[in-house]
Design brief:
Length: 429
């Protein structure tokens, strides 16, 4: 029987600092400046320098797993040029996790690329698969004997939407066909990596971390809003998992967009990572350029986060039930809140963990929960102004770390659950 993992999650670029990649280039070009905001990276949370101290904090929190990513630009700063010293440090990090009895969940792609990538091997080209697989094989050869859980891509649809839909991420394109082509090539790359990883390490588990959103009609009394909500739900939540079973990546938005192409995925995935944060309202409007209006409203009564998102804990149970229908294991690979109110963070955590454990008790294959995020970090379009972390980072005072009360609270929840599970297992003998 597989254990239930209690963890925290982070991504390399958002925490590590001291690297140049496509996102730092994009920032320098002013790509993130919008609506009066100018988010600055400023070396994330300096995790690359402070990781040993940070791992002691992981030990204090008592997690049994840590979801992290490796920064491709650090490993391969120039195409074909491998930085062995960076590889050595990642190896030391993995070894330290194992010494602490913390299971590493390694994410290969978490939104960022080397500076050379988009010009030479963009995701709209099949050359991307060759380039990314070379990077992945380097990690497989170095760490494969110690990594049991591999996440090939984090939120590939979210990245494709940001990079090729609304041009908020590099390469900053606005072309829906290119967006779907990039997504298709990412999924093909997953399938290729799945075969390579399983061939080298048959017991390894390989999955994708996918963002899921609860969509609701902005005006429930209006049929067009209800139909629109169903359409968006299919596109965002169902299109990719269904492609794994049907071997077709397809989506049609009446009068505006149609994509339908074969893709050989053959259900090659061991688990789905569920990233869940909020409920969103969708409304139709007579505007050919922007026919959909998205909004948030505190209809649940659980409040809004500092991102303006509606907290809707019941939605997690609905998503878990949906994903369970695809017949694979489930890990809640991200679930968290941006807030300066730590009491609200603890209420958020309690409500969502309760939904996760209830789903497990109902027989759904939920195998772990990872709070996002471990540290306060760089939050893309928001910079370091939004704090998701269980650990406070003082950006003005040499990145000093302080455990929040919510970290102690999470540690207590983990301890209580692990004791219950051990007692239950002992009763079986």
């Amino acid at each position: 029987m597989k254990p239930f993992y209690w963890g925290v999650a982070s991504s390399a670029f958002q925490t590590e600092g001291y690297v140049q990649n496509d996102m730092t280039d994009w920032e320098a070009l002013g790509g993130f400046r919008q609506d009066g905001k100018n988010p600055l990276y400023q070396n994330g949370s300096a995790h690359w320098l402070h990781w040993q101290d940070d791992f002691r904090l992981l030990e204090q929190i008592g997690v049994t797993a840590y979801r992290f990513s490796v920064e491709w630009a650090r490993i391969e700063p120039e195409r074909g040029q491998i930085d062995q010293a960076a590889l050595d440090q990642y190896e030391r990090m993995v070894d330290r996790m194992l010494e602490l009895n913390i299971e590493p969940f390694l994410t290969l792609h978490h939104f960022t690329h080397p500076t050379w990538f988009h010009a030479q091997t963009p995701w709209t080209s099949e050359l991307a698969q060759e380039a990314f697989c070379r990077f992945a094989h380097i990690l497989l050869n170095r760490l494969g004997d110690r990594i049991r859980y591999w996440i090939t891509f984090n939120e590939p649809l979210v990245w494709a939407l940001a990079a090729y839909g609304d041009a908020k991420f590099p390469p900053g394109k606005s072309n829906l066909n290119e967006m779907m082509l990039a997504l298709k090539n990412m999924l093909k790359t997953h399938s290729c990596l799945y075969r390579h990883i399983k061939s080298a390490f048959p017991l390894a588990q390989v999955g994708i971390a996918k963002h899921f959103i609860i969509f609701a009609p902005g005006r429930n009394w209006l049929a067009v809003d209800r139909s629109l909500t169903d359409l968006i739900h299919h596109f965002f939540n169902e299109m990719i998992p269904q492609a794994f079973k049907s071997n077709r990546l397809k989506f049609r938005f009446p009068l505006l967009f149609n994509f339908d192409e074969p893709i050989d995925l053959n259900n090659q995935i061991d688990f789905w990572g569920v990233n869940y944060y909020y409920r969103m309202l969708a409304s139709f409007r007579l505007n050919l350029r922007k026919p959909i209006h998205f909004a948030f409203k505190d209809a649940s009564g659980e409040g809004l986060t500092d991102m303006g998102w509606e907290i809707y804990s019941e939605g997690l149970a609905r998503i878990l039930k949906l994903v369970a229908g695809y017949g694979k294991d489930i890990y809640i690979t991200e679930n968290g809140i941006a807030t300066g109110n730590d009491a609200l963070r603890m209420r958020f955590m309690d409500a969502h963990i309760q939904q996760a454990l209830k789903a497990e008790q109902m027989g759904l294959p939920v195998k772990g929960y990872f709070y996002w995020s471990f540290l306060d970090n760089y939050e893309w379009l928001e910079g370091n102004s939004k704090r998701f972390g269980l650990v406070h980072v003082d950006y003005k005072q040499n990145f000093v770390r302080t455990l929040k009360q919510s970290a102690t609270h999470y540690a207590r929840l983990i301890s209580i659950d692990r004791t219950k599970r051990q007692t239950k297992n002992l009763k079986k003998f």
